[in-house]
Amino acid sequence: MFYCYPYCSWQKGMLEKNHEFIRAVLPKGESFNDLSQEDVDVMINHINNYPRESLNGASPFDLSEVLL
User: Fold this and answer.
1) SS3 at position 33
2) Burial of 26 (0-12, 13-18, 19+ CB in 10 A)
3) How many Cβ atoms sit within 10 Å of the Cβ of residue 47?
4) What is the average per-residue pLDDT within 8-28?
5) Which end of the chain has fewer surrounding CB within 10 Å, N or C?
């Protein structure tokens, strides 16, 4: 787990891109309260398996398999 200081966006790295993906599924203003843990797990699983241009076409999941 990584903790960063508030208002220090340079410490967040690609976390902001994940936020964009989450907001594509749940636009700003929609509640997260109706989501089950399973719903969240599926959403994050899809996000982590999506290939990223910044990762040379690999997904975060692909890289974690290689590095871990």
Assistant:
1) coil
2) middle
3) 19
4) 82
5) N
